[in-house]
Amino acid sequence: MSTRAIRLVSSKTRRGLYSIHLQCHVKPGVSKQRNGITSISDSIIHVCVSARAKEGEAN
Questions:
Q1: N or C end: fewer C-beta atoms under 10 angstroms in the chain?
Q2: Domain residue extents for the chain
Q3: Digits of tens for pLDDT over the chain (59 positions)?
Q4: Global pTM value
Q5: For the residues of the chain, what is the DSSP string, one character each?
Q6: 49 within 8 A of 31, measured Cβ to Cβ
Q7: How many Å apart are CA 52 and CA 48, to the nearest integer?
């Protein structure tokens, strides 16, 4: 069973009633012309970022 790309979740704290969870696949190191959201499906949001990953970690 796949998860939804966008989910509304009940908050466990008093600060807010709900939070929004976004399921994203981020591709680093693309050209600046491709920056941004490239596609959205029921299960995932694809995002391209021109910055390269540093030491294999997210930046």
A1: N
A2: 23-59
A3: 468 999 998 888 777 788 899 999 999 999 989 899 999 999 999 999 998 888 877 66
A4: 0.73
A5: -PPPSEEEEE-SSSS-SEEEEE-EEEEES--GGG-EEEEE-SS-EEEEESSPPBTTB--
A6: no
A7: 11
- Count the neighbouring beta carbons within 10 Å of the beta carbon of residue 48: 19
CA-CA distance, 29 to 34, in Å (whole number)? 10
Q: CA-CA distances (angstroms) from residue 10 to 13, 17, 51? A: 9, 6, 33
d(CA 33, CA 26): 15
Separation CA 46–CA 9 (nearest Å): 21
